[in-house]
Amino acid sequence: MIRVLFVDDEVELLDGLRNRLWRKRREWEMSFALGGQSALEVLKRQQFDIVVSDLRMPLIDGTMLLERVRRDQPTAIRILLSGETSFGVTRHLDVAQQILGKPCPIELLEDTIERAQRVRTTVSDPEIQRRVGEVAAIPAVPELVLELDNVLSNPNGSLRDAEHVITREPAFATRVLQIANSGFFGARRATTSVEEAVSLLGLESLKAVALTHELSRPYGGTDETTKKALRGLQTHSLAVARAAAQFFDETPLCRSAFAAGLLHELGALLADPAFRVPGSRAGGADRIAPDGSPGLTSGNQGLEVVGAYAVAIWGLPFALVEAVLYHREPWCATQTRFDLPAAIYVANHLVTPRFPSPSPDPRDSVDLDLEFLEKIGVARSLPIWTALVQDLEPGDRKAA
How many CB atoms sit inside 10 A of residue 359's CB? Predict the structure, then answer.
């Protein structure tokens, strides 16, 4: 049974939630707190799996409350309900892992909570839940932070200019996909394309996001070692993204493969000691040991699980979650077709000798599993793909 805390400063709304969610009483252990101060008292007495809070409350608002939850109960998934119509609400994504509009359809709220719990059940390791829960910001290459700032502050800057920067930086791509897929934005279908997410948000919304959100904040530390590691991971991820995109003829799959490649090392950005994230205790921690959580294969290394868990609780589509989780062991996802995990597996293997990741994995030096590639019908394409990757340059945009 999952433990869920609902917080609002209006009695009528809390009573309405209690009544409408009554049918969930055998599946959810629910608590209801009237306002932020009352919620803090409840949080002192009890641990929760999920906390759902209204944004606008007197004295202790939703942002302040969820910041306390992140500090004191980092394994709890944090969901914010907001009646704001401005994209400025996305500034709260540094404490809220998901933001839903208010009033929120009860079906959407139930679905969001149940999906979050499924993720927690699959990745049951509390250490992974804690490390992702403590994340305040995703580190980005400082030069690209400044480049995006310049584009969005330029009166003549275009959406295409912004897309050109966002599609080169995993941190930007992750947040834009998160917002485009959020209940707050009212996404009607899953968006796995960074380009589509940028288009859905539009230039003015991107400006609002960047002005109030971490897209415009420099992070990743200021020392040269950290900067070098960030640049190396960004170059590697972008090369994998552009290689994987060339493996598909169909445009939607090309764009999904590009996004998956850009995000495939997200776990390293969040948990590897090479990347220190100011304001987050998760950065600079020791590398997570191989995970043996129920529902995950014993071969999955901790960093892949960290990345997949983060992508999942941030509400990104399952196709991207699966690609991040299985990009080194795609046979765990499918044995019959060439899909995103398999594409990133091949691209990562072909790209690594030229553009190595600063967060290396021993499996990257193992030969490709030709029997698996034969089984899914792409072994004959390997020489063509190898030649394509040999011609690939970090600045090459033809695959994006």
Answer: 20
Q: How confident is the model at residue 185 (pLDDT cuts 50, 70, 90)?
A: low
Q: Provide the β-strand partners of residue 33.
A: 7
Domain 2-122 - what CATH class?
alpha beta
Question: Would you call 399 helix, strand, or coil by DSSP?
Answer: coil
Residue ranges of domains in the chain: 2-122, 142-216, 224-390
Residue type, 252: P
Q: Which tens digit of pLDDT belongs to each residue from 56-95?
A: 999 999 999 999 999 999 999 999 998 776 566 666 777 8
Distances (CA, A) of 119 to 113, 133, 298, 319: 10, 13, 17, 14
Q: How far apart are CA 300 and CA 122, in angstroms?
A: 13
pLDDT digits (tens, 9 = 90+) for 226-268: 788 888 999 999 999 999 999 998 778 899 999 999 999 998 8
Strands of the chain (E only): list them.
Answer: 2-8, 28-34, 50-54, 77-82, 98-101
Give every CB contact of residue 333 below 8 A, 6+ residues apart in sequence.
322, 325, 326, 339, 341, 342
